Amino acid sequence: MTDFADPSAPRAVRAALRKRLIAAREALPAALHAQLSRRIERHLGELVDALRPAALAFCWPFRGEFDARDLVAARLNDGLDGGMRACLPVVTGDNLPLAFREWTPRSDMIEDRYGIPVPAQGAALWPDLILMPLNAFDEAGYRLGYGGGYFDRSLAAPFPRPRAVGVGFELARVASIRPQAHDLPMDFIVTEAGAFEVTPNGLRNFQPRNMR
User: Fold this and answer.
1) Which of 6, 106, 160, 183 is most deeply buried (CB count within 10 A of its CB)?
2) Torsion angles phi and psi, residue 139, rounded to 5
C-alpha cells in the first residue's frame, strides 16, 4: 500500500498522487501488466456474471489501464433479446454528466476531445453497471480519476444510479485519496488481488451469494 500525505493542500496532493501512480502503472513491464490483467479479468468476470447487468458501461483503455474489451465482448448477446448490451461513455460538454453510447466489437470508432475512441454511432443507453478505471483507490472505496468529475456527475445525475465498479491494479491502493465533497464511493473494487465489496466498514471480499 502506498500513501501521499499532506493535509494542507488536498487538490495539489491529489494531483501529485494521480501523476505518480499513473506513471507507476505505465512503467509496468508488458509481461507483468499482462499477467496482472489476466487476474483482474478473472475476478471481474466473476463479479459481472454475478451481477448480471442488462447494460454494462466500460472505458476504452487509456494510459496503461486494464483493457476490459475482451471481457465485455465475450458477454454480449449478439443481438439476442434479453442479453447484455455494452456502452462507452461520451463527453457531451464541460460540467455535464456523461452520455453512454452502445458499443460492439464491430462499432466504427472516432476519437473524442481527449483522443479516446468512442462509437461514431450507436443507441443511447443508460447502464446499470459501470466499470470505472482507478488511478488510486482507498479502503473506503473512493476512487481517484483524472480530475474532470465526469463520472461523479454521472453517478449523481437524476437517473437510476448504476452500480459502480472501480477497476485497477493493486499499486493504486492508498491509505486515503483525500475524498472531497463531490466524490462518491464505488460499490465494488476489483484488482488482481480479488473483487471487493465496499461496505461501511471498508472493503470486504466479494461473495457471489450476497450480490443478488
Assistant:
1) 183
2) -65, -25
